[in-house]
Design a protein that fits this description.
Helix content is 70%, strand content 0%. It has 2 domains: 140 residues, Orthogonal Bundle (Tetracycline Repressor, domain 2), CATH 1.10.357; 40 residues. By secondary structure, it is mostly helical.
């Protein structure tokens, strides 16, 4: 973390880490497998405190406002920790997500689930989470790429509200069969009336309806 904060990702060579830690380079490979494993561990360690703060925050009674707060926390973290954020999101490996990024995505999914249960989601949960994730990460990386004096934080606010308008109905009203299917699908895992087989079939039907938008 110290090397990262002082020199960015380029400072995280196995040689530099080994020297700073007072160990031989093979020790790093034995503990972390390879350079990517080491980098993932650094990102996971640096992100842990942020996740603890985010998980400890009591949910807002309004799930839409809760999503706004979560977005703002994410953007604020990225701008305050550019090297760590770039480590997590700036160099994607196809089909692989850093463990810290996976944990952050799970927190996002819980926010999206609250919208679905409240009848406020107009697109399937997975699509909504992907849209928020893509827009949030893109916003942070765009702002980080700007000179500090040019950063206009209203860009984040505009992007946030555009995404919220895209994924929510604006009121807890079931305006279409697809919206009703999304809401019922979110509540289905807690149902005890149907048998496991019936829930599986119902889940398939609801998923097809939700994607009929």
């Amino acid at each position: 973390m110290d090397l990262l904060s002082r020199g960015g990702r380029d400072a995280l060579t196995t040689r530099a880490v080994a020297v700073a830690a007072g160990v031989q380079a093979p020790t790093i490979y034995r503990l972390f497998g390879d350079k990517n494993g080491l980098v993932d561990a650094v990102a996971e360690h640096g992100f842990a405190l942020y996740l603890q703060e985010k998980k400890a925050r009591p949910p807002n009674p309004d799930p839409v406002e809760d999503l706004r707060i979560g977005w703002d926390l994410h953007v604020g973290f990225g701008l305050a920790n550019p090297a760590l954020y770039s480590l997590m999101y700036g160099d994607p490996r196809p089909g692989v997500m850093a463990p810290a990024a996976v944990a952050a995505y799970q927190v996002l999914h819980r926010l999206i689930r609250r919208l679905a249960v409240a009848g406020l989601l107009r697109v399937p949960e997975e699509r909504a989470a992907d849209l928020v994730h893509a827009s949030g990460c893109g916003t942070v990386l765009t702002l980080l790429g700007m000179p500090a004096q040019r950063r206009d934080l209203t860009l984040s606010e505009t992007a946030r509200e555009a995404v919220i308008a895209c994924i929510t109905t604006g009121a807890p009203a079931l305006r279409s069969p697809a919206a009703a299917a999304i809401t019922l699908g979110a509540a289905l895992p807690s149902d005890t009336t149907l048998s496991p087989g019936e829930r599986m079939l119902m889940s398939e039907w609801l998923d097809r309806l939700a994607k009929s938008l």
